[in-house]
Design brief:
Strand order of the largest sheet of chain B: 1-4
Number of helices of chain A: 11
Radius of gyration of chain A: 18 Å
Oligomer: heterodimer
Order of helices and strands of chain B: EHEEHE
CATH topology of chain B: Alpha-Beta Plaits
CATH topology of chain A: Rossmann fold
Shape of chain B: elongated
Shape of chain A: globular
Number of helices of chain B: 2
Helix content of chain A: 25-40%
CATH class of chain B: Alpha Beta
CATH architecture of chain B: 2-Layer Sandwich
Distance between the termini of chain A: 53 Å
Protein backbone atom coordinates (compact mmCIF):
# COMPACT_ATOMS: atom_id res chain seq x y z
CA UNK A 1 0.00 0.00 0.00
CA UNK A 2 1.34 3.39 -0.98
CA UNK A 3 1.45 6.31 1.45
CA UNK A 4 -0.90 8.29 -0.79
CA UNK A 5 -3.50 5.52 -0.44
CA UNK A 6 -3.38 5.96 3.34
CA UNK A 7 -3.66 9.76 3.25
CA UNK A 8 -7.37 9.99 2.48
CA UNK A 9 -10.00 11.96 4.41
CA UNK A 10 -11.82 8.78 5.54
CA UNK A 11 -8.62 7.44 7.15
CA UNK A 12 -7.86 10.56 9.18
CA UNK A 13 -7.63 9.80 12.90
CA UNK A 14 -6.15 13.04 14.21
CA UNK A 15 -5.98 16.67 13.15
CA UNK A 16 -5.95 20.09 14.80
CA UNK A 17 -9.22 20.90 16.55
CA UNK A 18 -11.54 23.52 15.04
CA UNK A 19 -11.53 25.33 18.38
CA UNK A 20 -7.97 26.50 17.79
CA UNK A 21 -7.71 29.34 15.32
CA UNK A 22 -5.28 29.29 12.38
CA UNK A 23 -3.20 32.01 14.02
CA UNK A 24 0.37 30.81 14.50
CA UNK A 25 1.10 30.34 18.19
CA UNK A 26 3.55 32.95 19.47
CA UNK A 27 5.25 30.45 21.79
CA UNK A 28 8.82 29.29 21.39
CA UNK A 29 9.34 25.95 19.60
CA UNK A 30 8.63 23.07 21.98
CA UNK A 31 6.82 25.14 24.62
CA UNK A 32 4.23 23.24 26.66
CA UNK A 33 1.75 26.13 26.39
CA UNK A 34 0.80 25.09 22.85
CA UNK A 35 -0.03 21.54 23.92
CA UNK A 36 -1.93 22.81 26.96
CA UNK A 37 -4.01 25.17 24.77
CA UNK A 38 -4.78 22.40 22.34
CA UNK A 39 -5.83 19.75 24.86
CA UNK A 40 -8.08 22.26 26.66
CA UNK A 41 -9.80 23.10 23.37
CA UNK A 42 -10.02 19.42 22.37
CA UNK A 43 -11.80 18.67 25.66
CA UNK A 44 -14.26 21.53 25.12
CA UNK A 45 -14.85 20.26 21.59
CA UNK A 46 -15.43 16.67 22.78
CA UNK A 47 -17.85 17.80 25.48
CA UNK A 48 -19.69 19.96 22.92
CA UNK A 49 -19.71 23.03 25.17
CA UNK A 50 -17.88 25.48 22.91
CA UNK A 51 -20.92 27.79 22.68
CA UNK A 52 -21.22 27.96 26.47
CA UNK A 53 -17.55 28.36 27.38
CA UNK A 54 -15.94 31.63 28.41
CA UNK A 55 -12.19 31.80 28.97
CA UNK A 56 -10.12 34.38 30.77
CA UNK A 57 -6.59 34.97 29.46
CA UNK A 58 -3.83 36.13 31.81
CA UNK A 59 -0.80 38.36 31.43
CA UNK A 60 2.38 36.52 30.51
CA UNK A 61 3.41 34.31 27.63
CA UNK A 62 -0.18 33.18 27.19
CA UNK A 63 -1.59 36.74 27.06
CA UNK A 64 -2.67 36.13 23.45
CA UNK A 65 -4.65 33.01 24.36
CA UNK A 66 -7.75 34.86 23.14
CA UNK A 67 -6.26 34.96 19.65
CA UNK A 68 -5.62 31.21 19.62
CA UNK A 69 -8.67 29.77 21.36
CA UNK A 70 -11.79 29.89 19.23
CA UNK A 71 -14.21 30.30 22.16
CA UNK A 72 -15.46 33.45 23.89
CA UNK A 73 -12.49 34.95 25.68
CA UNK A 74 -11.65 37.97 27.72
CA UNK A 75 -8.39 39.16 29.18
CA UNK A 76 -7.74 40.21 32.74
CA UNK A 77 -5.20 42.50 34.38
CA UNK A 78 -2.07 40.79 35.67
CA UNK A 79 -3.08 38.08 38.15
CA UNK A 80 -6.75 39.07 38.26
CA UNK A 81 -8.12 36.32 36.03
CA UNK A 82 -9.82 34.42 38.92
CA UNK A 83 -11.56 37.64 40.02
CA UNK A 84 -12.82 38.33 36.48
CA UNK A 85 -13.87 34.67 36.12
CA UNK A 86 -15.77 34.95 39.42
CA UNK A 87 -17.81 37.84 38.03
CA UNK A 88 -18.57 36.01 34.77
CA UNK A 89 -19.50 32.76 36.55
CA UNK A 90 -21.82 34.57 38.96
CA UNK A 91 -23.65 36.46 36.21
CA UNK A 92 -23.91 33.37 33.97
CA UNK A 93 -24.02 30.40 36.35
CA UNK A 94 -24.90 28.03 33.50
CA UNK A 95 -21.74 28.85 31.51
CA UNK A 96 -18.42 27.02 31.67
CA UNK A 97 -15.83 29.53 32.81
CA UNK A 98 -12.12 28.83 32.84
CA UNK A 99 -8.97 30.82 33.46
CA UNK A 100 -5.65 30.03 31.84
CA UNK A 101 -2.71 31.34 33.85
CA UNK A 102 1.02 31.00 34.18
CA UNK A 103 3.04 30.86 37.37
CA UNK A 104 4.04 34.52 37.37
CA UNK A 105 0.39 35.47 37.00
CA UNK A 106 -1.27 32.97 39.34
CA UNK A 107 1.42 32.39 41.97
CA UNK A 108 3.05 35.83 42.20
CA UNK A 109 0.97 38.91 41.49
CA UNK A 110 -2.35 37.06 41.60
CA UNK A 111 -1.82 35.05 44.79
CA UNK A 112 -4.53 36.92 46.68
CA UNK A 113 -7.13 36.54 43.92
CA UNK A 114 -6.25 32.87 43.46
CA UNK A 115 -6.44 31.96 47.12
CA UNK A 116 -9.66 33.85 47.79
CA UNK A 117 -11.28 32.52 44.63
CA UNK A 118 -10.34 28.97 45.65
CA UNK A 119 -11.53 29.63 49.20
CA UNK A 120 -14.91 30.86 47.95
CA UNK A 121 -15.18 27.77 45.77
CA UNK A 122 -16.35 29.55 42.64
CA UNK A 123 -17.68 27.19 39.99
CA UNK A 124 -14.81 27.64 37.52
CA UNK A 125 -11.83 25.74 36.12
CA UNK A 126 -8.33 27.12 36.71
CA UNK A 127 -5.64 25.93 34.30
CA UNK A 128 -2.26 26.78 35.80
CA UNK A 129 0.84 26.30 33.68
CA UNK A 130 3.92 26.12 35.91
CA UNK A 131 7.29 26.41 34.21
CA UNK A 132 9.23 27.86 37.12
CA UNK A 133 10.23 31.09 35.40
CA UNK A 134 8.90 34.33 33.94
CA UNK A 135 9.11 33.40 30.29
CA UNK A 136 7.78 36.45 28.46
CA UNK A 137 9.86 39.10 30.21
CA UNK A 138 13.17 37.30 29.76
CA UNK A 139 13.53 34.46 32.25
CA UNK A 140 13.38 36.16 35.64
CA UNK A 141 12.94 34.24 38.90
CA UNK A 142 9.35 33.28 39.68
CA UNK A 143 7.93 32.11 43.03
CA UNK A 144 7.98 28.58 41.58
CA UNK A 145 11.67 28.67 40.54
CA UNK A 146 13.50 25.67 42.02
CA UNK A 147 16.27 26.09 44.65
CA UNK A 148 19.62 26.62 42.97
CA UNK A 149 18.04 27.29 39.56
CA UNK A 150 19.77 30.01 37.56
CA UNK A 151 17.60 32.75 36.11
CA UNK A 152 18.40 36.26 34.92
CA UNK A 153 17.53 37.70 38.36
CA UNK A 154 19.17 34.87 40.32
CA UNK A 155 22.36 34.36 38.28
CA UNK A 156 24.04 32.31 41.03
CA UNK A 157 20.98 30.13 41.55
CA UNK A 158 17.99 30.67 43.82
CA UNK A 159 19.11 30.87 47.46
CA UNK A 160 16.55 29.65 49.96
CA UNK A 161 17.92 31.89 52.75
CA UNK A 162 17.27 35.15 50.95
CA UNK A 163 14.70 34.27 48.29
CA UNK A 164 12.51 31.71 50.02
CA UNK A 165 11.38 28.30 48.86
CA UNK A 166 9.37 27.57 45.72
CA UNK A 167 5.65 27.80 46.36
CA UNK A 168 3.54 24.69 45.80
CA UNK A 169 0.28 26.25 44.71
CA UNK A 170 -1.64 23.00 44.23
CA UNK A 171 -0.91 21.74 47.75
CA UNK A 172 -1.73 25.21 49.08
CA UNK A 173 -5.16 25.51 47.45
CA UNK A 174 -6.00 21.84 48.11
CA UNK A 175 -6.16 22.71 51.80
CA UNK A 176 -8.90 25.28 51.17
CA UNK A 177 -12.46 23.96 51.57
CA UNK A 178 -13.69 25.59 48.35
CA UNK A 179 -11.65 23.48 45.93
CA UNK A 180 -13.25 20.29 44.69
CA UNK A 181 -10.61 18.85 42.39
CA UNK A 182 -6.88 19.65 42.48
CA UNK A 183 -4.40 17.82 40.32
CA UNK A 184 -0.92 18.24 38.88
CA UNK A 185 -0.21 17.04 35.35
CA UNK A 186 2.35 17.46 32.60
CA UNK A 187 2.26 17.59 28.79
CA UNK A 188 5.74 16.62 27.62
CA UNK A 189 5.07 13.04 26.46
CA UNK A 190 2.07 11.34 24.86
CA UNK A 191 1.30 9.48 28.11
CA UNK A 192 1.22 12.66 30.16
CA UNK A 193 -0.79 14.51 27.52
CA UNK A 194 -3.50 11.83 27.62
CA UNK A 195 -3.61 11.95 31.43
CA UNK A 196 -3.75 15.75 31.47
CA UNK A 197 -6.57 15.70 28.96
CA UNK A 198 -8.57 13.33 31.16
CA UNK A 199 -8.00 15.64 34.13
CA UNK A 200 -9.21 18.70 32.19
CA UNK A 201 -12.27 16.76 31.05
CA UNK A 202 -13.06 15.85 34.64
CA UNK A 203 -12.67 19.50 35.64
CA UNK A 204 -15.21 20.71 33.07
CA UNK A 205 -17.59 17.94 34.11
CA UNK A 206 -17.29 19.18 37.70
CA UNK A 207 -18.28 22.62 36.45
CA UNK A 208 -21.36 21.15 34.79
CA UNK A 209 -22.32 19.46 38.08
CA UNK A 210 -21.67 22.76 39.93
CA UNK A 211 -19.23 21.10 42.32
CA UNK A 212 -16.92 24.05 42.84
CA UNK A 213 -13.47 25.02 41.75
CA UNK A 214 -11.25 22.63 39.80
CA UNK A 215 -7.56 23.49 39.81
CA UNK A 216 -5.32 21.86 37.19
CA UNK A 217 -1.61 22.55 37.45
CA UNK A 218 0.40 21.65 34.35
CA UNK A 219 4.14 21.42 34.96
CA UNK A 220 5.70 22.61 31.74
CA UNK A 221 9.05 23.48 30.27
CA UNK A 222 10.48 26.86 29.30
CA UNK A 223 13.31 25.87 27.02
CA UNK A 224 14.19 29.47 26.13
CA UNK A 225 14.25 30.60 29.75
CA UNK A 226 16.10 27.51 30.91
CA UNK A 227 18.55 27.87 27.98
CA UNK A 228 18.10 24.31 26.67
CA UNK A 229 16.72 22.57 23.62
CA UNK A 230 13.08 21.44 23.96
CA UNK A 231 13.98 17.77 24.46
CA UNK A 232 16.78 18.60 26.92
CA UNK A 233 14.40 20.79 28.89
CA UNK A 234 11.83 17.98 29.04
CA UNK A 235 14.47 15.63 30.48
CA UNK A 236 15.62 18.33 32.91
CA UNK A 237 12.00 18.84 33.95
CA UNK A 238 11.57 15.11 34.67
CA UNK A 239 14.75 15.03 36.72
CA UNK A 240 14.39 18.29 38.65
CA UNK A 241 10.84 19.64 38.53
CA UNK A 242 8.93 16.40 39.17
CA UNK A 243 10.68 15.50 42.47
CA UNK A 244 9.63 18.91 43.85
CA UNK A 245 6.26 19.07 42.05
CA UNK A 246 5.10 15.42 42.07
CA UNK A 247 2.48 14.61 39.45
CA UNK A 248 -0.90 13.16 40.31
CA UNK A 249 -4.22 13.99 41.92
CA UNK A 250 -3.97 15.96 45.15
CA UNK A 251 -7.64 16.42 45.94
CA UNK A 252 -10.44 14.39 44.37
CA UNK A 253 -14.15 14.92 45.04
CA UNK A 254 -13.36 17.38 47.81
CA UNK A 255 -11.07 14.97 49.71
CA UNK A 256 -7.31 15.41 49.95
CA UNK A 257 -5.47 12.35 48.64
CA UNK A 258 -1.85 13.23 49.42
CA UNK A 259 0.01 16.11 50.94
CA UNK A 260 3.63 16.40 49.92
CA UNK B 1 3.81 -7.58 8.61
CA UNK B 2 2.00 -4.84 10.41
CA UNK B 3 -1.74 -5.06 10.73
CA UNK B 4 -2.21 -1.32 10.66
CA UNK B 5 -0.48 1.17 8.43
CA UNK B 6 -0.30 4.82 9.24
CA UNK B 7 0.92 8.04 7.72
CA UNK B 8 1.48 11.55 8.94
CA UNK B 9 1.15 14.81 7.08
CA UNK B 10 3.20 17.65 8.52
CA UNK B 11 2.09 21.22 7.97
CA UNK B 12 5.60 22.36 7.10
CA UNK B 13 4.82 26.04 7.58
CA UNK B 14 3.33 25.44 11.05
CA UNK B 15 6.18 23.19 12.22
CA UNK B 16 8.72 25.01 14.38
CA UNK B 17 11.26 22.18 14.38
CA UNK B 18 11.18 21.61 18.15
CA UNK B 19 11.78 17.85 17.67
CA UNK B 20 9.47 16.91 20.57
CA UNK B 21 7.76 14.40 18.24
CA UNK B 22 10.94 12.40 17.63
CA UNK B 23 11.50 10.70 21.06
CA UNK B 24 7.79 9.80 21.48
CA UNK B 25 7.70 7.92 18.16
CA UNK B 26 8.12 4.20 18.91
CA UNK B 27 9.09 2.99 15.41
CA UNK B 28 11.38 6.01 14.72
CA UNK B 29 9.42 7.24 11.74
CA UNK B 30 10.16 10.94 12.02
CA UNK B 31 13.30 12.87 11.11
CA UNK B 32 14.08 16.53 10.61
CA UNK B 33 14.44 17.81 7.07
CA UNK B 34 17.57 19.42 5.66
CA UNK B 35 15.42 22.14 4.08
CA UNK B 36 13.88 24.97 6.10
CA UNK B 37 10.43 26.51 5.91
CA UNK B 38 9.68 30.21 5.45
CA UNK B 39 10.43 30.92 9.11
CA UNK B 40 13.78 29.15 8.86
CA UNK B 41 12.90 26.06 10.88
CA UNK B 42 13.88 22.53 9.88
CA UNK B 43 10.54 20.75 9.75
CA UNK B 44 9.64 17.16 10.67
CA UNK B 45 8.96 14.64 7.93
CA UNK B 46 8.22 10.94 7.64
CA UNK B 47 11.60 9.36 6.86
CA UNK B 48 10.47 5.73 7.27
CA UNK B 49 6.86 5.61 5.98
CA UNK B 50 6.70 1.79 6.06
CA UNK B 51 7.09 1.72 9.86
CA UNK B 52 4.35 4.23 10.79
CA UNK B 53 1.43 2.71 12.71
CA UNK B 54 -0.66 5.87 12.99
CA UNK B 55 -0.55 5.83 16.81
CA UNK B 56 -0.98 9.67 17.01
CA UNK B 57 1.73 10.01 19.69
CA UNK B 58 3.62 12.58 17.63
CA UNK B 59 0.49 14.58 16.90
CA UNK B 60 -0.70 14.88 20.49
CA UNK B 61 2.64 16.13 21.80
CA UNK B 62 3.06 18.63 18.95
CA UNK B 63 2.57 22.05 20.57
CA UNK B 64 1.61 23.61 17.24
CA UNK B 65 -0.60 20.72 16.09
CA UNK B 66 1.29 20.64 12.80
CA UNK B 67 0.77 16.87 12.35
CA UNK B 68 -2.33 15.18 10.92
CA UNK B 69 -2.47 11.39 11.28
CA UNK B 70 -4.03 8.82 8.96
CA UNK B 71 -4.49 5.15 9.75
CA UNK B 72 -5.82 2.21 7.80
CA UNK B 73 -6.24 -1.48 8.63
CA UNK B 74 -4.38 -3.87 6.35
CA UNK B 75 -5.91 -7.30 5.90
Amino acid sequence: MEVLDIIRPENQVFCKTKLMTDTTLTYCPGCGHGTAHNIAMEVIDELGIAEDTIGVAPVGCSVFAYDFMNVDMTQAAHGRAPAVATGIARIWPEKYVFTYQGDGDLAAIGTAETIHCCNRGENIVVLFVNNGIYGMTGGQMAPTTLPGMRTSTSPYGREIDTMGSPIKMSELVANLPGTYYVTRQSVHTHKHVRKAKKAIKKAFENTRLKKGLSFIEIVSNCNSGWKMTPNESNIWMEENMFPYYPLGDIKVNGKIKQVA
Amino acid sequence: MAKVRGAIVVDTEACKGCEVCIPVCGPDVISMSQEVNRKGYHYAYMSDPEACTGCTNCAIVCPDRAIAVYRVKVA
